[in-house]
Design brief:
The chain is an alpha/beta fold. It has six helices and four strands; from the N terminus they run E-H-E-H-E-H-E-H-H-H. The N and C termini lie far apart (47 Å).
């Protein structure tokens, strides 16, 4: 099974895992790494590498980060460029994490990357669109 590492600024990663546990229960092979103010990209990269080792069962690891181009992304991307079977997807949200958690059984790393991407895109909706109403004018 593909392992999952959530890497975010502050305690957001822990918060996402806590919220996902409320909805889909405890998930094996899923951990969070929280960027602390005192972290350098190198120290964060070391902690992400340790988390990857912890959840990697041989099927690969999906790293979900909060902001493209920020330190969690940069540390994860540097690690992914040095190792095989690691993918990084930015824009992690609770809907994205829930989808990958419930769909990862039997999915390859490449398939799970697509699940994450689609969940991130499709979870952004407005009430007006959902109800088929005219959006509020500016």
């Amino acid at each position: 099974m593909v392992g999952i590492v959530v890497v975010c600024h502050g305690a957001m990663g822990d918060g996402l895992l806590d919220a996902s546990r409320m909805i889909v229960g405890e998930q094996k092979g899923v951990v969070a790494v929280n960027l602390r103010e005192e972290d350098s990209v190198e120290s964060l990269m070391d902690r992400v590498a340790a988390a990857v080792e912890k959840v990697n069962s041989g099927d690969g690891v999906l790293i979900l980060v909060d902001v493209f181009g920020a330190s969690p992304f940069n540390a994860s991307a540097r690690l992914a460029m040095q190792r095989d079977q690691i993918e990084v997807v930015s824009g992690v949200s609770l809907p994205m994490l829930l989808e990958v958690a419930v769909q990862r059984e039997g999915q390859s790393l490449a398939e799970l990357v697509e699940v994450a991407r689609e969940a991130g895109i499709s979870s952004i909706r407005t009430l007006s669109e959902t109800l088929g109403r005219k959006p509020v004018e500016q």
